[in-house]
Amino acid sequence: MVETVLLVGVIASIFVGFNIGGSSTGIAWGPAVGAGLLRKTTAAALMTFFVFLGGWTVGRNVMDTLSGDIISIEISLVAGVAVLFFIGLGILIANVFGVPVPTSMTTVGAIAGLGLATETLNYETITWIISWWVVTPILALWIGATIGRYIYPELNRRFEISASEGALLTLDRSGSAPKPVLGPNTTYQELVGTVVVFIIGCYMAFSAGASNVPNAVAPLVSSGALEVDTAIIIATVAIGLGGFTIARRTMESVGGELSDIPLLAALIVMITASTITTALSWIGIPISLVMASVMTIVGLGWGRATRPITARAAVRGETDTELAMGALTADPDAPVRKIGEEESEKVLNAGDLFNPRAIMKYVSMWIIGPSMSTLLAYGFFVAFPLVG
Known about the structure:
Strand content: under 5%
Oligomer: single chain
Helix content: 55-70%
Shape: globular
Distance between the termini: 16 Å
Order of helices and strands: HHHHHHEEHHHHHHH
Radius of gyration: 22 Å
Number of domains: 1
C-alpha cells in the first residue's frame, strides 16, 4: 500500500515538474532561441543542467521552508500526495486562464491550507513569506522603472545586440592547429552579446531551479518518503523532460514575442528577475520568477513612458501575450539623452507601452491562485484528516 501511494506521489511530482519545465524553459531561453543564438535541444539540455545546479545548492533552502517551516508537524505520505494534487490543480487552472500563476505561491497556499486544517500553521513563517510576496513586485517595478527612465535608452544606443547571418565562429585551419575565428559576418560586439545572452540564460535557469525544484517534491520530502537528494534528482528529470518536449512551443512563443523588441530589454528583465528570485531563494523564501519578470517589464514600460521618445503602440487587442512586446517596443531612432538626464515633458502614456487590463489579470490571479489552493486544501483536510 505504501509503495503504491509513493508511486502515485512520484507521478504527481513528475507532472508538476514537467509543467514547470515547460514554462520555465521558455522564459529562460526563449530570447536566445528567438534570436537564433542556439537550438531548442541545446537550450533544453542547458536548462536541465542549471536547474539541477540551482536546486542542488540554493534550492535546498527553499526546500527546508516548504517541507518543515510552514507547518510544525511532519505530514503523512497520503497528505503529501494530496498537497501535490492541489499544486497540480493550480497549474491546470493557470493554463485554462492563460495566466502564469506562480507555482511557488500555489505550493505555499496548499501547505498553508493543510496547516490551517490541522492547527499547525506557523504564522510567523507564513507572514514573513507573504510580506516578501508584497515587496517583490514593488521592488521589481521600481527597478524596471528606474532603468527605463534613466538608463535603458543610453544602454540601447551603446550596446545593440543583434545576430548576423552565417556562423558565429568558424575554424581557421591555415595554421598548424585549427583555431576558432569570427564568422564571415560576425562582429566582436555580436560575439560579446552572444556570450552575454548565453550567460544570462544559464543564470536564469539556475534561478528557476532554485525556486521551482522544491515546488515539485517538497510535500514528499516533508512526509519522509523521499530523501532530499533523491527528490532533487526526480524534480530535475521532470523539469528537463518538460524542457525537451512542451517547452519547444513555449520557446517559439516567447522568442516570437521578443523578436520585435530589442534583445537588450529582454536581457535586463531576465537579469533583474533572476537576481531577485535567487536572492530570496537563498534566504529560503518561496518566490516566483514569473512575478518578478512581469513587474520588471511593467516598470520598464512605465519608466520609458516618462521620456520624450516615439513609440509604436504594440498593444492591439486584448491578448495577454502583447504584454512583453508592448512594454519594451520603441522607435530605435528616437532621441536618446545621457544616463540620468531629466526630461522636461512626457509625450507617452504608460498605457501605450503595456496593457493595464493584462496587468490587472495577472495580479488578480496571483491573489486568487494561492487563495484558492489554500481554501481547497483546508476544506479537503478538514473533511479528510490524513496527517497522522
